């Protein structure tokens, strides 16, 4: 919401400036294109985050550089000197507004954890990378907790324990009814880490959990289908020249077919053929199916580039249009791996309740991995996506995927 507010105010400022300088319709069109690419660049370079106490000098210089590049292009098109004044006013607004919002919302909150063992360690690891919170260690028992919270002015109490005894419930309820927010372990992981920890949920939790609207809402499914087809057509048109060049290079680099097809598991565990530009040698699986690995020796040089930029997955736009896949969802896996993973990972089959996607929440949130533990972590993000699906979340994933492609961090 802060980002939306930030973009909205900057948009208003930009519109006011276009009126002040009485731009022609042609110049206004170019100007709004410049504004769009500036905002997109600020997002891609993580310059619209409001969860840090201050900007570094590098951040300020990056903001200045982004604005300078796009305004320079605008200037070279028009050769209007008034753009220098326009540039200075707008850049000042970008930085000043960010500072005002940051100073208004950023507030370090004291937080502590009640509990022991693995859950507490998981929470502590999460807090290490979470801006805006100051962790104060509590090492006493339940009798000391209330006074500890009061003395240290704790604003957030995290529960590193799934089941509480009557005395613990009574004490923590008193704390909650005062001026302290209390959050359970699973709720914290859901709200802050944006994942569902499958090791600690139960069938009862799934039964009582809110969300999962995508599984039963016909309206949401229709909206998602329109989004899928629309994005596939738009991206297909924009990347068609890239696909032609990629096909030529794949053909020249190594013998074999340009397009590689493989059976994958989709919605309701129904298999379908997925299409990709071939990124491996023709004999990559002569010894049987294997997990893809980081720096996989079977991958060709151009294949490695395609994987990092996700070019190899562009033929899957056809799968999306056909309805085998969605544009966004859990990545489709092979049946031979799924059978093994279902034996080792609880609730793994739940990811097949929806259509697989060309990109997904797990792909933008979790780094490359090719182990059972990696598959479990990705499942936790996939289940979050299924539980909390919205068109807004799809748009977030789309922009995060764009960031992945731009910086070559595909997997």
Overview of the molecule:
It is a single chain. The chain is of the alpha/beta class and 411 residues long. Helix content is 56%, strand content 9%. It has a 4-stranded parallel sheet with strand order 2-1-3-4, with helices on both faces. The protein has a two-stranded antiparallel ribbon with strand order 5-6. Strands 7-8 form a two-stranded parallel ribbon. Helix 3 packs antiparallel against helix 4 and helix 10 packs antiparallel against helix 11. It is globular, with a radius of gyration of 25 Å.
Furnish the topology, listing elements before pairings:
Blueprint: H1 2-20, H2 25-44, H3 57-78, H4 82-105, E1 109-115, H5 118-128, E2 133-135, H6 142-151, E3 156-160, H7 166-176, E4 181-184, H8 185-191, H9 203-208, H10 218-253, E5 259-265, E6 271-277, H11 301-309, H12 316-322, E7 326-328, H13 335-344, E8 357-359, H14 361-365, H15 372-388, H16 391-406
Parallel strand pairs: 1-2, 1-3, 3-4, 7-8
Antiparallel strand pairs: 5-6
